[in-house]
């Protein structure tokens, strides 16, 4: 899956000169938590989120520092805080530069970007022009759709074959002894593993095989015995 497969194409965007009050109303009316800011040519200039509108002079939520903390605060940081709390247009309060992706960006890369930058959405661009946006909700929606598309039945031999292939592909499955049995879609795990983490991971791996209807855990955690030197 790529950005073009899951992105929202009808994006609620604002211009650099859009007023803060208009942005707040847009977020509320559209039920969204952020909107890209574009220039007159449609190029992404930044993004405004609810977080950018939290500390505002109009509602008395500007950042207040004690006098001794102010002594250690840098001038640039205080200037940025003032601009966000007193600025009247999108360009005053937006976060810029903004992280963006192309239409062919894999969904795994997008998820990593959202996590790494601690953001909730990322604009999708083509030649710098805004063509869509991918949010955390879009990724969750793709996950739900993928789960719905999974086959409900599969041959036990096919399940066992797929399970063995996936086990061999994981480096962490080489520890311990493992026996497998598949009966009418239910995977039974037998054997000994060296840790609880490995045990839980094996259960998850088995449960993700298409056609599996259940996992029976008969594994025993047998930690290595330390020997005195």
Explain this structure.
This protein is of the alpha/beta class and 229 residues long. It has two domains: 3-146, CBS-domain, CATH 3.10.580; 156-221, Histidine-containing Protein, Chain: A (2-Layer Sandwich). The protein contains nine helices and nine strands. It has helices at 3-6, 20-30, 67-72, 75-86, 90-93, 107-117, 136-149, 156-168, 196-207, and strands at residues 14-15, 34-38, 44-49, 101-102, 121-126, 129-135, 177-183, 186-193, 214-221. The strands form three sheets. It has a three-stranded mixed beta sheet with strand order 1-2-3. The longest helix has 14 residues, at 136-149. The termini are far apart.
CATH domain fold name of the largest domain: CBS-domain
Total number of strands? 9
Please compute the radius of gyration using only Cα atoms.
26 Å
Q: What is the helix/strand order?
A: HEHEEHHHEHEEHHEEHE
Domain module count: 2
The CATH class designation of the largest domain is Alpha Beta
Shape: elongated
In what range is the share of β-strand residues? 15-25%
Poorly predicted residue ranges: none
- Determine the number of helices (DSSP H or I, runs of at least 4 residues): 9
Break the fold down into its secondary structure elements and pairings.
Elements: H1 3-6, E1 14-15, H2 20-30, E2 34-38, E3 44-49, H3 67-72, H4 75-86, H5 90-93, E4 101-102, H6 107-117, E5 121-126, E6 129-135, H7 136-149, H8 156-168, E7 177-183, E8 186-193, H9 196-207, E9 214-221
Parallel strand pairs: 1-2, 4-5, 8-9
Antiparallel strand pairs: 2-3, 5-6, 7-8
């Amino acid at each position: 899956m790529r950005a073009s497969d899951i992105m929202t194409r009808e994006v609620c965007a604002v211009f650099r000169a859009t007023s803060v009050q208009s942005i707040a109303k847009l977020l509320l009316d559209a039920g969204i938590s952020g909107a890209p800011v574009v220039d007159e040519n449609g190029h992404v200039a930044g993004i405004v989120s609810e977080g950018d509108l939290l500390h505002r002079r109009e509602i008395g939520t500007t950042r207040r520092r004690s006098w001794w903390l102010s002594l250690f605060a840098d001038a640039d940081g205080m200037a940025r805080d003032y601009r966000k709390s007193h600025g009247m247009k999108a360009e005053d309060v937006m976060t810029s530069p903004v992280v963006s992706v192309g239409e062919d960006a894999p969904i795994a890369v997008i998820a990593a970007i959202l996590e790494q930058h601690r953001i909730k959405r990322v604009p999708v661009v083509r030649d710098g022009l805004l063509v869509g946006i991918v949010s955390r909700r879009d990724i969750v929606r793709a996950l739900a759709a993928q789960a719905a598309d999974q086959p409900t039945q599969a041959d036990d031999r096919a399940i066992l074959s797929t399970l063995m292939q996936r086990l061999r592909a994981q480096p962490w499955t080489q520890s311990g002894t493992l026996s497998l049995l598949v009966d009418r879609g239910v995977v039974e795990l037998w054997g000994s593993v060296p840790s609880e983490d490995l045990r839980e991971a094996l259960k998850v791996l088995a449960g993700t095989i298409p056609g599996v209807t259940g996992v029976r855990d008969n594994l025993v955690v047998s930690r290595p015995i330390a020997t005195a030197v």
